[in-house]
Design goal:
With about 325 residues, the protein is of the alpha/beta class. It is built from 9 helices and 12 strands. It starts with 5 loop residues before the first strand and ends in a 14-residue tail after the last strand. This is ATP-binding cassette domain-containing protein.
Length: about 325
């Protein structure tokens, strides 16, 4: 995994979006996209963040990078509190924190050539001398599996997989310490997905990167991650080493997610746990445990008292009043 050094620490992080209505756009409520999230990421590890669409994964990633300003809480990067740093002081730190966005088409400026896209960060942060930028861009393209002859092309001239490789090249151009990959593979064809995943793993070793890998695909997360963090409706419900998580998940929501992962063996029978109802609105989350409205093992206390995220086994944290109440055996 990592080397024991905490590279990123998030404490009680919250991101609320105002809901406005009426002629005067008065605030009538708050959408609690991220609601009190705390965790650490060790240098050199890959932390996989999973959960259903709308659980707050992407908002969490963008808030950590200060692309969205946090409502409350603190963000520490390499021991420094960056939560309220002004733009001038945050700029040199941004060099060490990069993001690969979900949609490579919308995240690349369609009016800029590949050369201009990749040179932009190098120029702003003065990573390499101006007269060697073209050579650096060509080396970046070759490193992500593209021809150096592509430098004068525009994003619309590439396939989805090639555009994502350009996004990856942009992310590693500044030699960052932390890369947040936000559903970086979800928009790609299955045949391309494996190639890009292999590329991410190669770059991690080559550049000693630390990944926050956000995805809804547990099979991919299992392949690349060291630890797994599960989010539900803006909250962390489980955090565990990969082996422990897939062998014995302790939160009912985690069990349901793992039961949905297909097994490529026709002789293995598996019954999926189907959760009843939809994910509640982050505008009015249910009281107590936010999962209790869909949990097949919910009891009275679950609707009244919100469970804390506690370490129930070494390195295995879960926010549940009855951890282990639903098992994978019940889904087989």
């Amino acid at each position: 995994m990592g080397n024991g050094e905490v590279l990123l620490r998030v404490e009680n992080l919250k991101k609320y979006f105002p809901l406005r209505a009426g002629v005067f756009k008065k605030v009538v409520g708050w959408i609690r996209a991220v609601d009190g999230v705390s965790f650490e990421v060790f240098s050199g590890e890959t932390l996989g963040i999973v959960g259903e669409s709308g659980c707050g994964k992407s908002t969490l990633g963008m808030t950590i990078l200060r692309l969205l300003e946090p409502t409350e809480g603190r963000i520490f990067f390499a021991g420094q509190d960056i939560t309220k740093l002004p733009p001038a002081k945050l700029r040199p730190i941004r060099k060490d924190m990069q993001m690969i966005f979900q949609d490579p088409f919308s995240s690349l400026n369609p009016r800029m050539t590949v050369q201009a896209i990749l040179e932009e960060g190098l120029r702003v942060h003065r990573v390499v001398p101006r007269d060697t930028m073209r050579k650096e861009v060509e080396m970046l393209l070759e490193r992500v599996g593209l021809s150096r002859d592509y430098v004068r092309r525009f994003p619309h001239e590439f396939s989805g997989g090639q555009r994502q490789r350009i996004s990856i090249a942009r992310a590693i151009a500044l030699r960052p310490r932390l890369v947040i990959a936000d559903e970086a593979l979800s928009s790609l064809d299955v045949s391309v997905r494996a190639q890009v995943l292999d590329l991410l793993q190669e770059l991690k070793k080559e550049y000693s990167l630390t990944y926050l890998f956000i995805s809804h695909d547990l099979a991919v997360v299992r392949q690349i991650s060291h630890r797994i963090l599960v989010m539900y409706l803006g909250k962390v419900v489980e955090l565990a080493p990969k082996e422990a998580f897939f062998a014995r998940p302790l939160h009912p929501y985690s069990v349901a997610l793992i039961s949905a992962v297909p097994i490529p063996d026709p002789d293995v029978r598996k019954v999926r746990i189907i959760l009843s109802g939809d994910v509640p609105s982050p505008l009015q989350p249910p009281p107590g445990c936010r999962f209790h409205t869909r949990c097949p093992r919910a009891q009275e206390i679950c609707a009244m008292v919100e469970p804390s995220l506690l370490e129930v086994e070494p390195g295995h944290f879960v926010a549940c009043h009855f951890p282990g109440c639903l098992t994978l055996e019940e889904a087989s």
